Amino acid sequence: MFDVLYLCLGGVAWTVVAFKARAWLRDRGNADLGLTCVMSAGVATVFVFSAPGVYRWFDRLTGVSNLSMVFLYSSVVVFAAGAFVLLLRWSGGAGAEGRARIRARSRTAVTAVTVAWAVAVTCFVAGRPDDVEHPRDLSTAYAGSPGVMAFLVLYLAIFGTSLAGLGALCPRYAGRLGASWLARGLRLLAAGCWLGLAYCACKLAGFVLSWAGHEAPWLSNGVAPLSASVAAVLVLAGLALPAAGPRASAWRRLRRLHPLWKDVAAQAPEMTAGGPSWRVRWPFARLQWRADRQMAQIRDVQRGIRRYVEADTVDIARERGRAVVADERQLAAVAEAAALRRGLENRAIGLVPVLGAESVVVTAEERPPARPANRADVTRERLPDAVPGGPALGPSAELIAEYEHLARVADVYYSPLTDTVLTELRQRSAMQRH
Q: DSSP string spanning 305-334?
């Protein structure tokens, strides 16, 4: 059971690492992204080597019992070293002087961690008393070995210090970013860090109880590993969310816009042709670009058909809609949907009204003002203070409002209310012809 669980988590974790590595190779100047890639790889390795089957296989392969534990904890120390460097980058300030200070302190921190871990591994080698493997109870099995205890205490000191610093700093920066994916990721990362500290506390409490003659295997071998596993999942989710969240938002926009775009493109193919190919081999590729492209082509069609739309179409739609729709945003969507359908319908039969509409697009001024920018779609993973000016943003608040408005238009495009408006316009046109 543990093998399946940890290997599944490891597979997910390495998938995250692959996506982060791909993103970093495209943006090698983003040092924070590179660091989070390394930290994610550390978490992924921990999951893989936590599987008892992998643990024993690696020991058999190397011929050294419990060497997997050294490799597993070394991966945790790599994560901790990355966390130390991130802490220094976030708090080192901007400008040439700040960058020089960050580089110097980062080298010092990495050197200190390397030396401390080298001492810990030496203690482990010197203190390993037998060749029995202990993938899940090393700390209790070797509680009487000073060398192994020194190894474990140094490991907990390095890991716990990095978790405490990162757990304290992440919420502070998350508060500056508003309701953004980056802020959510930082808060998840902080939660994972604090739960990781609970793991360290459980391990240390288990050591103390063992030394006092009160064995507590349930604490060291039960509660501690469980809290560490959940903490690792939270940390991995926190590292992945700033990249996964905007993609999820873009996918949601694409799914909502696509029915409207498909209908418009079918009725006005010459207006939606051209530009880069829509064919993509992977359905989640270039999501934001595809959503942008669909919205732009819908707007092109609206501009092209406005002379086919009666000048009072939007007013009629608003007047009929007020009787049943209280939300102004929904009312604006109904008006725009009716104008778009009417324009395409008249264009198909060649009917050009005497007075055409100046515009069939409900402008931002006609809709309720968009909320202040809330950085809800940070698409890059640059973290606070690493680069002057803060993180790079994705779509602006105004563009996000446009997406939402067009999505509402798609939702009501074939609604009964829109049909009612069109029926009235058709009847009026028929009466005028006779």
A: HGGGSBTTHHHHHHHHHTTT---HHHHHHH
The per-residue pLDDT for range 168-177, each reduced to its tens digit, is 888 888 888 7
Judged by DSSP in three states, 364 sits in coil
Query: b/e map of 223-258 (b: 16 or more CB within 10 Å)?
Result: bbbebbbbbbbbbbbbbbbbbebbbebbbebbebbe
Burial grade of 375 (CB within 10 A; 0-12, 13-18, 19 or more): buried
- Quote the tokens at residue 350: 């060649």
- Condensed to tens digits (0 to 9), the pLDDT of residues 54-108 reads 988 998 898 888 888 899 999 999 999 998 998 888 877 667 777 888 888 889 9
Indicate yes or no: pTM above 0.85: no
* Three-state DSSP class for residue 380: coil
| Cα separation, 257 vs 249, whole angstroms | 12
Calpha distance 23→246 (Å, rounded): 14
In one-letter notation, the amino acid at residue 271 is M
Are the C-beta atoms of residues 34 and 21 closer than 8 Å to each other?
no
pLDDT tens digits along 28-50:
888 888 888 999 999 999 999 98
User: 43: helix, coil or strand?
Assistant: helix
Total count of residues recorded for the chain:
434
CA diameter of the chain? 104
Under DSSP, the state recorded for 194 is: H
